[in-house]
Design the sequence.
């Protein structure tokens, strides 16, 4: 795994919390469908995998939201990439803070 990306997707045209959560949920459902390892947090979702697969996923998050009716969105990304090696996994970074979780791949929590 040579890439990790933190994605914060913000639907700018949502007028209620329910509309915001619906748009974010659709993006997370897309991320789930990619087969990439991911971890949903309260402010962003982290994905892990091959660089090209992560970049494709990042690009498609906007396209999925647009297809679902979102007309204005902002997406912020933090990219950790090592072309010749592995990046730290989510489990390595935060596993000690979640001792009851046995696996972080595809971990889901409610979006605040």
Sequence:
């Amino acid at each position: 795994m040579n890439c990790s990306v933190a994605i914060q997707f913000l639907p700018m045209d949502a007028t209620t919390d329910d509309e915001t959560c619906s748009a974010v949920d659709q993006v997370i459902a897309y991320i789930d469908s990619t087969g990439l390892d991911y971890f949903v947090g309260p402010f962003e979702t982290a994905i892990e995998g091959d660089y090209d697969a992560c970049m494709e996923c990042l690009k498609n998050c906007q396209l999925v939201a647009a297809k679902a009716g979102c007309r204005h969105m902002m997406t912020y990304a933090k990219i950790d990439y090592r072309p010749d090696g592995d990046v730290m996994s989510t489990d390595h970074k935060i596993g000690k803070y979640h001792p009851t979780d046995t696996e972080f791949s595809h971990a889901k929590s409610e979006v605040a």
The chain has one domain: 3-97. The longest helix spans residues 17-33. Residues 4 and 44 are 13 Å apart (CA to CA).
